[in-house]
Design a protein that fits this description.
Layout: E1 4-5, H1 8-18, E2 28-37, E3 41-47, E4 58-59, E5 62-64, E6 76-77, H2 81-88, H3 92-110, E7 115-116, H4 129-139, H5 145-152, E8 155-157, E9 161-168, E10 177-185, E11 199-205, H6 207-215, H7 223-232, H8 238-243, E12 250-251, E13 254-258, E14 261-265
Parallel strand pairs: 2-10, 6-8, 9-12
Antiparallel strand pairs: 1-14, 2-3, 2-5, 3-4, 3-11, 7-8, 9-10, 13-14
Protein name: Nudix hydrolase domain-containing protein
GO molecular function: hydrolase activity, acting on acid anhydrides, in phosphorus-containing anhydrides; metal ion binding
Keywords: Hydrolase, Magnesium, Manganese, Metal-binding
């Protein structure tokens, strides 16, 4: 058990939390989507250095659940919220919110929309000015996701998502998320675009290549991203990823002191 060395400031906070001098903050429900295309390659964003959480890290699209994501009015195709709840061990209301957040955040952060006019279709193109206006309105929360879909006559395609993992930010962090990980394939005809916002760079990368870049310290990956990429590197096709059977096990890294040094371990 070697773990990841903690920087001095976080190590000090870890000691305070472990000693009971500081209480852990609650973790916010969130969803993250690993977007795939043939190769297989994954879509990664580099978070701006000014961000309060995971500054400079390469991450998958994702973010917190908006309370409006649980709206039952969302048109839905594919596995039901109850089925997603069973997969992630949560109630039906939260499961609906997680799936909606996954689709909404993917659109906000990549321009890719996992929805279509019907249960067997997807939107062909989301690059026009009207789509961009809606994307920005979703980001600033002036537009609810359910209203966005309803106004455009779209159905959320939950069948285009696959449950992958469940990570909770360590209790020592001052910003914490209870994040469900999904995987999805880039729909035919759609393409990602540099949408700005929280990221200053986007890239499609083979999982093994991203891991190698992290080992060479050319990019920074947080433990959940690193672990997920390591898992995906075992597959030589998108179909292989989708065909695998996953049991969702909760992982919450914890701080431990090893020979006088605070380290973060995931097992």
């Amino acid at each position: 058990m070697t773990g990841l060395p903690l920087p001095a400031e976080l190590a000090a906070r870890a000691r305070d939390v472990l000693a009971g001098r500081v209480q852990p903050v609650p973790a916010r429900d969130a969803a993250t989507v690993v977007l795939l295309r043939p190769g297989p390659q994954v879509y990664l964003l580099r978070r701006k250095s000014t961000m309060a959480f995971a500054a400079g890290a390469y991450v998958f699209p994702g973010g917190s659940v908006d309370v409006r994501d649980t709206d039952q009015a969302v048109a839905w195709a594919g596995p039901s919220p109850a089925e997603w709840g069973a997969a992630f061990h949560v109630d039906e209301r939260l499961a609906r919110g997680l799936v909606c957040a996954a689709v909404r955040e993917t659109f906000e952060e990549s321009g890719v929309l996992l929805a279509g006019p019907g249960a067997g279709s997807v939107v062909a193109d989301t690059t026009g000015d009207d789509w961009e206006a809606d994307r920005l309105a979703l980001i600033d929360r002036s537009l609810a996701f359910a209203d966005f879909l309803a106004r455009r006559g779209l159905v959320l395609r939950s069948d285009l998502l696959k449950p992958w993992a469940h990570w909770i930010t360590p209790e020592i962090e001052s910003r914490r998320f209870d994040t469900k990980f999904f995987v999805a394939v880039l729909p035919e005809g759609q393409r990602t675009r540099d949408v700005g916002g929280e990221a200053d760079q986007v890239v499609w990368q083979r999982p093994a290549e991203a891991i190698d870049l992290a080992h060479r310290k050319e990019i920074f990956l947080m433990p959940p991203t690193y672990r997920t990429l390591s898992e995906l590197a075992q597959y030589d096709s998108v179909d292989g990823v989708l065909a695998t059977s996953r049991e969702i096990v909760t992982i919450m890294p914890r701080a431990v002191e090893i020979e006088g040094e605070m380290r973060l371990v995931s097992s």
